[in-house]
User: Fold this.
Amino acid sequence: MVSFSRVTESKKGAFISHIVAEKPIALKLQEYLKKAFGPTFPVFVSTDQTSVGGGRKWFQHIISNVRSAKVVLVLISQESAQREWINFEAGLGDGSGGCVIPVAIKSFTFDKLRFPIAGFNGRYVEDIEGIVLDITRETGISALQLDRAEYVEEIRSAERNLTYKNLILQPFITKAQNGHRRLGFTLENRGNIDMDLLMVEMWAPADAVDGNSYRPNYGGLLDWRVEQIDGRQYQACRYTTVIGPGTLGIESLRSVLTPSMGKLVLNPIGIALARGLELQTYPFPLFYQVHARSYDTVKEKILFGDIPVEN
Assistant:
């Protein structure tokens, strides 16, 4: 068995944890750390082609480099703070004996940070002297002096040119005029560029929705089907985009969603829930997913008791 002390002795260099959208900042920080500590000083950035070469099993390679880094710098912004991958890499670095340092970017302030990352003292990305000092303390390697003004200007330029894609699809429950609770969705573009929408999908347990909610296919906009999920029958709904208004007076899902549109309510997916459905105790989840061009999403799930209820 390898002792913990021997593992820490083999550690070297730095690892910069970041979300893909913030790659330009990670690469700029990597560039300046190599200026400070020399070109052979290892600074791993997963989106740097030289850090993850062709033919490598990328996931295992990233995990290995987190574990072997003396210092793990975690880039934190409003967009990245709650990302699972960021928290995973920070926890892995800490658990492997590395020094984890949150680095705030894009005017993020540490009072907004939540645990577990909030448990580590952080640096602001402009504080390159402090970051270099921390690395020197952990590695014992002396650094060259950097041009701070030049560094800050290049970081600011990288921040200004970041491109974020962030679509938020959220379910809610309300009551219709006939007394039925209804399930609806809001959709919001919280990124900084327009998004080309493709479709929204929803999967609800068949016994949780009113059978009269199953609407026919409105000109290709909305269609229902039955699917099996974990051995249970689910009523699935797919709502696709078209240009212009929907049929039968139903507003279509917009083909382009801009940040300025704010939070939109997807009225066509106004599904009546079964009468007498006990939201807090119903054990089977709702699944939902939004699809957009060049934007990867996952099927999300939520228990009915956790869905916000509106009056």
User: Anything to note?
Assistant: The first strand starts at residue 14 and ends at 17. The two ends are 60 Å apart (CA to CA). The CA atoms of residues 123 and 131 lie 7 Å apart. Confidence is low (pLDDT under 50) at residues 1-9, 51-55, 216-220, 243-251.
